[in-house]
Design brief:
Elements: H1 14-25, E1 34-35, H2 37-56, H3 67-79, H4 81-87, H5 93-100, H6 105-114, E2 124-131, E3 134-144, H7 152-156, H8 161-177, H9 183-200, E4 215-218, H10 219-225, H11 231-237, E5 249-252, H12 255-266, H13 270-285, H14 291-306, H15 314-338, H16 341-363, H17 370-381, E6 384-388, H18 406-422, E7 444-446, E8 451-455, H19 470-486, H20 508-526, E9 529-531, E10 534-535, H21 542-562, H22 576-587, E11 591-592, H23 594-603, H24 609-617, H25 621-627
Parallel strand pairs: 3-5, 6-8
Antiparallel strand pairs: 1-11, 2-3, 4-5, 7-8, 9-10
Helix pairs in contact: 2-3, 2-15, 3-15, 5-13, 6-11, 8-9, 8-13, 8-14, 9-12, 9-13, 15-18, 16-17, 16-19, 16-21, 19-21, 19-22, 21-22, 21-24
Length: 646
Amino acid sequence: MAGMDKAIKPGNNFFLYANGTYLKNIVIPPDRSSFGPFIILAETARERVQKILSEAGKNPVAEPKTTEEKLGAFYASFLDEAKAEQLGATPLKADLEAIRAVKDAPSLARLFGQATRGFQYAPFGIMINADDKDPTQYALSLHQGSLGLPDRDYYLKPEFAAKRKAYQAYIAKMLTLISWPQPEQEAAHILALETDLAKAEWSRTELRNPVKIYNPMTVADLAKKAPGVNWHDFLEAAGIPASGLESRRLIVGEPTALAGMAKILSGAEYATLQAWLAFHLSDNAAGYLSHNFVQASFDFNDRELEGSPQLPVRWKLAVSHSEAAMGWAIGKIYVDQYFPPEAKARITELTQDVKAAFANRLAHNSWMAPATREAAGRKLQNFEIQVGYPNKWRDYAGLTIKPGDIYGNGARSIAFEWQYNLGHLDKKVDRNEWFMTPQTVNAYNDPNQVEIVFPAAILQPPFFDPKGDAAVNYGAIGGVIGHEMTHSFDDEGRQYDEHGRLHQWWTPDDVKRFSALADRFGKQYDAFQVLPGVHLNGKLTMGENIADLGGLTLALDAYHASLHGQPAPVVHGLSGDQRVFLGWAQVWRQKLREDSIRNRAVTDPHSAPEARVNIPMHNIDAWYDAFGVKQGDALYLAPKDRVKIW
């Protein structure tokens, strides 16, 4: 209640009506690019993890063996700034020598492959995950990788010219720190190389089409389609078994992009390629090096790109890197200390309420063919809902952590993680595996496993209060639950069937009707300005937008069902429906710095906070009734213009 701004009419800007006073009063911390409930909970989780790590390090040993000893040693080694300063750039020596040894296509490919096991860089991403066409089996996949700027638009659009200039200066700075010859000249060459690569890459919008990015072929086929990179050496260096490698099946995400990138790389000067690899090595490893590397990385990646004015204190960085190295070990302790069993029971009950609301909506859907509607109902019934923490935990016995070896600990943790993934190759999918640790403030939908997952850290106020008002809980965590469920029926998720297989199980007419509704909805986001002249991309954010609309709609339905025909209580002068809508709106009360807003408009599949509130709201009839929104109000949409998908 205290965060509302009742001077603002709900029908003119519901986001500010619900959150205006809160947003006026909060100050983004200097080491953050944004601030709001997600960040506040993330900070709480980080402080808890700090306590866990500090406790783990109370009795240090020379050769850590137990998981707790390894956690303590990793954290303590990262906190030892004096040791990092003493070492300077020395830890990079062996990796830089490997880069200087790159003289031809085979040696370049082998170095790319080594990126899976440490801080080296590759412009291609290799993964082992569920096969979209057979989700019971793991498959090897290959995709275009990340470049140094956040998105290809940063290389190609004139409005990002200042960021390109800053990036070139950052490249030169990093090359100077490692005493690379001609840093200014090489920085210009590297930016030119990455600009060419960006032109070849697919856009984020194209990458949202799961059918388009599913291109199975053998390694031999890939070599024919994308000559210029020695793919055999690349994959073998990454640890893929050499025996039968040419005939091994892999799924290629962006065939034309990989072909274009391979051609560019094959024509590049090796002096430029070496400098490029050396820069990215330094960038990847910066956090594990002396302060001048840490500060240079922050100045560009956080200050320039996100607007954060101040480097976080060392312990916060240490927690983040410890999480990256041994997050599941931390998660097990976190759950034992901070996740009460009653929270899991109540959330499980809420998810069943939202699931029942969705089943009812599907049963009464008017635009789907009967057979498709029945199949959609079966898919919903197949949903597995996992809450709090996974059914089994990771074993870190094979990870070597050495006290005082900051760089080595980081590199070995990367190699350990990749070795764990390699262990999945050619095996059946483990349905107990999670992709977010319990201390993560988020949730996700896995289309292949037909499941949604809610880590422990998100299951607390303001998202969920087991002793709080039911209406607010339904609007907040209920909306998030509905959001994740709806992802299985958004523009991407709908293409996976009740068993998580990618194929077209809708009729052509179903697809046309859905696409028409989605296009109408997307145009509402295209019209939304996050800054003067900066619009959201409705195609990039389509899946999240559909999930937001579905999530809020389902939360309201589930709340109504929970009343069992009884009138909703009035609390603080607000009706039940009003509190559901406010619960949703207050989850997204977030303030962002301008550079972060610009970055997210290009890179983030989630819409801006204000859009996540106002646009779903004004497509829901009950919102108009709850707040008396009338024609003439800024958010008013005529009934015929309101989009209803699920």
